[in-house]
Design brief:
single chain, alpha+beta, 5-stranded antiparallel beta sheet, 4-stranded mixed beta sheet
Amino acid sequence: MVFSRARIVAALSVPLTAATLLVAAPTANAAAGSSCDLSSGTGCLRIFYNSNRQGSSTYFYGSNVSNFANYTFLTSGAGKGLTVKNNAAAAINDASSSTTIFFNSNYGGACDTLTYYAIADQLRNTYNNNASFKFDYSASSCYKF
């Protein structure tokens, strides 16, 4: 039986490609929704498009978000469908620990910390410049709500 070089390469490339895709699979994202899922165990962070908790909003739960770029505002109102990154004006922390919103992706730069169950009618250091957040985190350099 004679095998061509092209067939051998093709046969070997399929498992290699599948293995590469499995290794390069993205990590799990935080859940986002139009309501809070308290069964996640983290509590929820609700982010609003407008100040004074107005406009469209999105709830985050389950894990931290290192980059808001892939999330949009989900509920009805001004801002619905727009990206959350660099568009948040207000927030509510529905968690039993502090939650911090950061100016930069990957939890860096200026920050606003919402203590447990706190409301920020207008974010201070991250107003329309928000890129990530962490549950159960606070730093002395953050503005505290």
